[in-house]
Amino acid sequence: MFSLFKQKRPIAGSVVYRGTLSPRAEEYEFLRKKGIEIEASPGDDRTYWSLKLRHPKLGEARLAAFRDLPPYPVWEIQMTEALTSAEKDEFAAAGVSVTVFIENPVGHVLKDRKRLLCFLRWVMADDGLFVTDHTSTMIWPREALDEELSHGADLDVSQIYCTHAVSGETESDPTWYHTHGLGEIGALDFDVINPSDGVFGGRGDLDRAIAYASVDGTLKPGAVFDVFSPGGRVLPVDAAEFDRAAAGEHAKVRAMDDDSHQINRVVLCDPGRGLLPFLKKKPRPTAALSAEIPEHVVIHFSDAATDLMSERARKTVGVFEKLRQELARYEFPAIAKMAYENKSGGREHLWFTVHGLRGEVLDATLENQPFDVPEMKAGDRGEHAIERLTDWMILSPAGSVSPRGGKVARLLRQNPEKLEQLLALMRASDA
Question: What is the pLDDT of residue 405?
């Protein structure tokens, strides 16, 4: 399972700066204070200079300044869903960059990309504007990097691809939601035409469920699968076939000047395609992901995906507690999901309200009534071992803060006055 994660491919990323003046090699002497050995190499017809970096724990990397690189494309910044509006405005000043290469990865995508992020953050220091992972084209703000590097968990699958939203007449009216980065590791990127707010606006588990299906091989052209139940059945259609066979009104949404949105990519469509090949219906974009996503649906993850998510939740519990304390004044619900054995020999995943973290246990109150764990009932408060933790969330009006990324937390920090106004309106409405 997830054999695609186990691959040894050279990887690279860039630190992007303001302005047009390329940094000099000697400006990176400060890296020695991080315990990094530096060996200079002469420039060539492609680079101004190149440095070999060696770290006692993370191994080797190469840092280079390339000649005649164009500024980072502003359109890509504007389409990236992982950024807040304030970050998009700030990053419009993107100019020159330097590139970090890891040419001898350890052989696991989630671990190697995190290793790359470590080097990029050191190089970024206080001057860099943001960093970007070349394989996924994902953009990392400084604050997001610092949070990710504050713990030892591997990256989440959502952090090895980026999502773009191509809007209609207004930015809040996306017509084409799609990923980049999964195809580059041998999986399939996916497109959703006319996505609902549930896909585009923050129901990130749908996005990740499809990504995990892509990496484990469940997502493949012609193979119907359920993203969620009930009502979440989709048919992946090869992107090039979709462009050839779909109705013009649907195909034109994906119209681009190159084929970068056709290779290793599927468009999620309705399952009904006709009973015989010569009676095939034109592929139609999925209605399941265009309609409003019901509140109480089951999003499908494999056992292997659940295990990976649980491991990350446990290793980021310190981040959870830090965020819980930071946001405590707003009284947002801080909840954790923990697994308990039931009488049938299986496990139930139960949600708790968390009051605090003490050592290796969570002080928490059970919120839902177990089906088959007779010794527990809703309302029970007690201490629960972190080893039982499978997920955590802090719920806010801007969305959920979770182990999968900190965009919502950054959004809350960047808009404290708007948040206070919104909460005042909500309190008045409740009263």
Answer: 78
Which pTM value belongs to this model? Answer: 0.89
Note the helical H segments in 246-359: 248-251, 303-315, 317-326
Nearest to 152 by CA among 315, 299, 7: 315
**pLDDT-derived band of residue 206, with 50, 70 and 90 as boundaries?**
confident
Beta-bridged to residue 238, according to DSSP, are 266
Confidence of residue 274 (pLDDT cuts 50, 70, 90): very low
The ranges of the chain annotated as CATH 3.30.1400 are: 3-155
Residue 199, both tokens: 């896909």
281: left (phi over 0), alpha (psi -120 to 50) or beta: beta
Q: DSSP class of residue 113?
A: H
**Selection from 309, 334, 305, 328 nearest residue 391 by Cα:** 309
Cα–Cα distance measured from residue 212 to residue 389, given in angstroms and rounded to the nearest whole number: 20
DSSP 182-226: SGGGTS-EEEEES--HHHHTT-HHHHHHHHHHHHTT---TT--EE
What is the pLDDT, as a whole number, of residue 278? Answer: 41
Helix (H, G, I), strand (E, B) or coil at 73: coil
Contact 135, 73 (CB under 8 A): no
Give the containing element (helix H, strand E) for 306: helix 303-315
C-beta separation of 208 from 202 below 8 A: no
Q: Which CATH class is domain 3-155?
A: alpha beta
- Cis, peptide link before residue 42, omega less than 30° from 0: no
The tens digit of pLDDT for each residue in 368-408 reads 888 888 899 999 999 999 999 999 999 998 888 999 878 89
The 10s digit of each residue's pLDDT in 156-202 is: 999 999 988 887 665 555 689 999 999 999 999 999 998 887 675 54
CA–CA separation, 318 vs 334, rounded Å?
A: 13
Helices 416-430, 407-414: crossing angle, 10 deg rounding: 90
Residues sharing a CB contact under 8 Å with residue 98, sequence separation 6 or more, in sequence order: 14, 15, 17, 22, 23, 63, 64, 65, 123
128, 90 Cβ separation under 8 angstroms: no
Give the pLDDT of residue 174.
Answer: 66
